[in-house]
Amino acid sequence: MIHIGKLIEAELRRQERTVSWFARKLYCERTNVYDIFKRRSIDTDMLLRISFVLHHNFFRYYWCEAEGLGSEPAEPAERQ
User: Fold this and answer.
1) CB 39 within 8 Å of CB 71
2) Which one, of 74, 45, 56, 62, lies nearest residue 8 by Cα?
3) pTM of the predicted structure, to 2 decimals
4) How do residues 40-65 score in pLDDT, each as one tens digit?
5) What pLDDT is stored for residue 65 in this prediction?
6) In sequence order, which residues have a C-beta less than 8 Å from that of residue 23 and are 6 or more positions away?
7) Domains in the chain, please, with CATH?
8) What gap in Å lies between CA 16 and CA 58, rounded to an integer?
9) Which of 22, 61, 26 is nearest to 45 (CA)?
């Protein structure tokens, strides 16, 4: 299972950016950024904003996980 908050925090640190910088770019308070770091899941609109700010496609982590589900579509349930 992906912990998106930890991945966001790691990318921010890798880029040597500060939490204050990140909060300014997201137009939020620093405390909100720390809340983002704690999240296992995140709203897609917010994830898109974060991806643009950090120039990093965070959606790819979900894509990689979804690929593990298999390529065969599920059979429709029979009607009763």
Assistant:
1) no
2) 56
3) 0.81
4) 999 999 999 999 999 999 999 988 77
5) 73
6) 29, 30, 32, 33
7) 4-56 (1.10.260.40)
8) 18
9) 26
